[in-house]
TrEMBL record:
Species per Swiss-Prot/TrEMBL record: Ornithinibacter aureus
Membrane topology qualifier: Multi-pass membrane protein
Broad class of enzyme this protein falls into: hydrolase
Pfam family, one: Peptidase_A8
Keyword ATP-binding attached: no
Phylogenetic lineage: Bacteria, Bacillati, Actinomycetota, Actinomycetes, Micrococcales
InterPro entries named among the record's database cross-references: Peptidase_A8
Function: This protein specifically catalyzes the removal of signal peptides from prolipoproteins.
Enzyme Commission (EC) number: 3.4.23.36
Residue intervals passing through the bilayer: 57-75, 82-101, 121-145
Keywords: Aspartyl protease, Cell membrane, Hydrolase, Membrane, Protease, Transmembrane, Transmembrane helix
Annotated active site: D117, D131
Name of the featured protein: Lipoprotein signal peptidase
């Protein structure tokens, strides 16, 4: 399960960073490009905050919160016992590392870097591939939690091992 989790995280990270490089080289800030009518478009911004630009003035706090979440994912990853949890945590890990990479390595400086966002949803908010992975991963985790599925998977009942 760990191989699936880490492999998926790596795939998400590579796609996220690749699309951000593409966006920075191909899009012009302020010049919106419609993809699916005006519903989904490309619109390059550098976001100092979180979703919906919440926390614009507290980028370093968002970095600390992201590191804490990353720590939780890494601890949980050691216990993964189901494919669903491996996929959910892999998506979350890849997305978190993708956006943390921006926070650490992009302007204006380490821990305060702005995240590259370029996928505009209905003019409501602008995100990136890492955000998609984080939202999908969190959605899977909510379903698993609602079902009561622990990270380690269903309990093992030795008395049924030979059935």
């Amino acid at each position: 399960m760990t191989t699936v989790l880490l492999g998926l995280a790596l795939v998400v990270l590579v796609i996220d960073q690749g699309t951000k490089v593409w966006a920075l080289n191909s899009l012009t800030p302020g010049e919106k490009v419609d993809l699916i009518g005006s519903f989904i478009s490309l619109n390059l911004i550098r976001n100092p905050g979180a979703a919906f630009s919440i926390g614009d003035g507290a980028t370093w706090i968002l970095t600390i919160v992201s590191l804490a979440i990353l720590g939780w994912v890494l601890v949980a990853a050691r216990k993964v016992g189901t494919m669903a949890w491996a996929v959910a945590l892999g998506l979350l890990l890849g997305g978190a590392v993708g956006n943390l990479g921006d926070r650490f390595f992009r302007e204006p400086g380490p821990g305060r870097g702005h995240v590259v966002d370029f996928i505009d949803y209905f003019g409501w908010f602008i995100g990136n591939v890492a955000d998609i992975a984080i939202v999908v991963g969190a959605g899977i985790i909510m379903v698993l939690a609602h079902r009561g599925t622990p990270v380690s998977g269903p309990p093992h009942h030795p008395e049924h091992a030979h059935d």
